Amino acid sequence: xxxxLTQGNTLKRILSFCLPLMTGQIFQQLYNMVDSVIVxxxxxxxxxxxxxxxxxxxxxxxxxxxxxCTGFSIPISHAxxxxxxSKLRAFYINSIYLTVFLSAVLTLIxxxxxxxxxxxxxxxxxxxxxxYDYISIVFYGLTATFFYNLFACVMRSLGDxxxxxxxxxxxxxxxxILDLLFVISFKMAVxxxxxxxxxxxxxxxxxxxxxxxxxxDILRLEKGEARPDIRKCGHLLFNGLPMALQVSVTAxxxxxxxxxxxxxxxxxxxxxxxxxxxxxxxxxxSESIGITMATFCGQNVGACRIDRIKDGMxxxxxxxxxYSLFAISIAGxxxxxxxALFVSKSQTQVINYVVRFLNTCIWFYxxxxxxxxxxxxxxxxxxxxxxxxxxVFELAARGIMGFIFIPVYGYSAVCIAHPMAWSAAVVFLVPxxxxxxxxxxxxIIGEIKI
Length: 450
Fold this sequence. Notes:
Largest sheet: none
Number of helices: 15
């Protein structure tokens, strides 16, 4: 079930880990697309706009959860690379303790503040109640989301990207079935979509726990290993919090942007929702390469294989850039057809807005690919705080676009806002990666000499 990424051909190891991960993410986004199609086709444009208007808020909270879980998995991947399995199990059990506590706190905070945040985001009055119904149910299910992501990240840190893929496929299929049942048969609209999401996440979390208990011998606790360890919890938080904050900082910029978009009306909200769904699908392979490099770099830091990190990074960046050209072609030639999957062809204004959004963003996909790879590599080497500051640059760029340019230039500024944020982050991450790489190299050489 586990896979050692510190040995063998770097490109083959990266691709063999990345492909199941990429397949899983594509499957998840296919679900998200189907989710939007079901809402748009069978509930209505207002309902689709309501779900879309919560996207930035959902990204901030769910991204915070995913950042924590990814950060928790970094010390586990280091321990796996070191082959110190007692340390690995200590990090694993303490990550569970932290998840129990943090999920309870985060659920309470989000449930209390959801309404106020939606108001602050200028959510239009005609979709406010729908948006609140949807996102509040999702937040009530955060514990399930938290544990599913924790278990998936732990498995990936041990080199297993196939089991999370299987879990994701099961979850997505179940989610679609429940969507159809709740939205079409029971006429529950956005509430049905949210309930389906929570139920599918809960099922996947329970199934993941059972699989880890039965299949991952390396994680079976030995006598005395179940006790909480404050130092281990501190180390996990040291890695997890910066990654979580980085996502939240980035998402705060997205909320600023969403707030500006919401002022432009329901038609623009629907268009940005659809365009964002399509774009997420198009850039998923690049994101998967980045996530792969977090585990790859983490294991090789633990194994003191700095040579493999350099070789792997060069090959990962090249693969990402080649794929970006393919994504540009797909969006450029088939933008209209992709938009028509979500809304009726009679919604010509929405479709035109979607195509305009995509045709602006696609030329920056190579920059986004480099962003994914560099940021995850820096995090995988154990430097979560420097990676977090890339989010600050994204926040600044999105804030400037949302507060200054969108009110003046309207939808044209909406289209260029994300590319500006990606570019700002890469400007920071390029020197940051080289600095952390050479610092890690000196550290490892020093450890070897000792």
